[in-house]
Design a protein that fits this description.
The protein is an alpha/beta fold. It has 3 domains: 45 residues, lambda repressor-like DNA-binding domains (434 Repressor (Amino-terminal Domain)); 120 residues, Response regulator (Rossmann fold, 3-Layer(aba) Sandwich), CATH 3.40.50.2300; 131 residues, 3-Layer(aba) Sandwich (Rossmann fold), CATH 3.40.50. It is built from 12 helices and 14 strands. It is elongated and about 75 Å long. The termini are far apart.
Length: 346
């Protein structure tokens, strides 16, 4: 904790102008004609770099006056390894679970985690990028909206995306959402739903989870089911925001007999249906998505498509460690989903 606080204090001072004319790891990389990841490994001692290239990098760093962050050292090798983890908001159960599991997996191999909640605030991702460029953190696992300029800088760093589609360079890990969308469609169709509402959050950066919406819609429409897809902005999403969105949608789309949404939205829909004396599952079927523990508290328990968050986190942790050492990895990794039957469908 002290290590992370020290790193953040250093960074805050830099942003406020108290530390001036700092040489960046990008400048060292340019002078040494090397990639940022290679320079980071050479300066931090966190992976293999050819001895001749290492000497070139160290020479360039010394010539430019690049200063390695003051942390514990042993034989001139940094002994602390930190991975930045960027998520929208850990108060949302899915992201909270992911952070828990990824921290556990990274700790097994001696890595610490620096958690960043973007919370829809501009500049949060950039702050973590700059920490990586300065060698304060060794890599980034992320799920966040990014600007074109941020994406260019991320492509030069050890980064693993989960869910976000960030182009052809950055590898990503995601659930088998196409499979999940079809499973949801099958459940609703078998329950004889003919007027289905699909609720989803709209992101600036495309997420692979969008495919669950497309697959569910296509499956149902091919079978003559009327499908409405309702989107709301993903920025600043919280439980209160979702509750308000659900209230509005229940008025706008009154009369639907099936709902497909993420677990939190599905839970709010169930609670509002109860207040309006709508019989679930007799008159309304609800299918969630994620498999969060919160569903264990609902009465009836919500039928959901469960993501294997622990396996997603494990895969991300394994891949980011490979990337920080320069090891090549595949571009796409998909984790299977499964149906957890509840009482909101028959």
């Amino acid at each position: 904790m002290l290590l992370v606080m020290a790193g953040m204090l250093f960074y805050i001072e830099y942003r406020m102008g108290r530390v001036k004319d700092m040489t960046t790891i990008r400048e060292v990389a340019k002078k040494a004609n090397a990639g940022i990841g290679t320079v980071s490994r050479a300066l931090n001692g966190t992976g293999y770099v050819a001895e001749t290239k290492k000497r070139e990098i160290l020479s360039a760093a010394e010539e430019l006056g690049y200063k390695i962050p003051e942390r514990k050292r042993k034989n001139n090798i940094l002994t602390e390894k930190i991975i930045g983890v960027i998520v929208p908001d850990i108060s949302m159960p899915f992201y909270g679970n992911f952070v828990k599991y990824v921290e556990i997996e990274l700790a097994k191999t001696g890595y610490k985690t620096l958690i960043c909640n973007t919370l829809g605030i501009q500049g949060r991702v950039l702050e973590v990028i700059e920490l990586a460029e300065k060698g304060i953190i060794q890599g980034i696992i992320m799920n966040a909206d990014v600007s074109p300029e941020e994406l260019k800088r991320l492509e030069k760093l050890p980064v693993i995306s989960f869910e976000r589609l960030l182009g052809e360079i950055i590898p990503f890990v995601a659930s088998e959402h196409k499979q999940g969308g079809r499973k949801a469609g099958e459940i609703l169709y078998k329950n004889r739903c003919m007027n289905v509402l699909i609720i989803t959050a709209k992101h600036i950066t495309r997420v692979y989870a969008d495919y669950r919406i497309e697959e569910c819609r296509k499956y149902l429409e091919k079978r003559g089911v009327n499908v409405t897809v309702a989107e709301y902005p993903a920025a600043n999403v919280s439980l209160l925001v979702v509750e308000e969105v659900v209230k509005q949608y229940m008025e706008l789309y009154y009369g639907v007999d099936g709902v497909f949404a993420d677990d939190i939205t599905a839970y709010c829909y169930l609670e509002n249906a109860r207040q309006l004396n709508i019989d679930v599952p007799r008159n309304l079927k609800i299918v969630g998505y994620d498999g969060n523990d919160i569903l264990k508290l609902s009465i009836p328990k919500i039928t959901t498509i469960k993501q294997d968050v622990a396996q997603i986190a494990r895969t991300c942790a394994e891949l980011i460690q490979k990337r920080t050492t320069g090891e090549k990895v595949e571009k796409k990794y998909f984790i299977p989903v499964k149906v957890e039957k509840g009482g909101t469908t028959k």
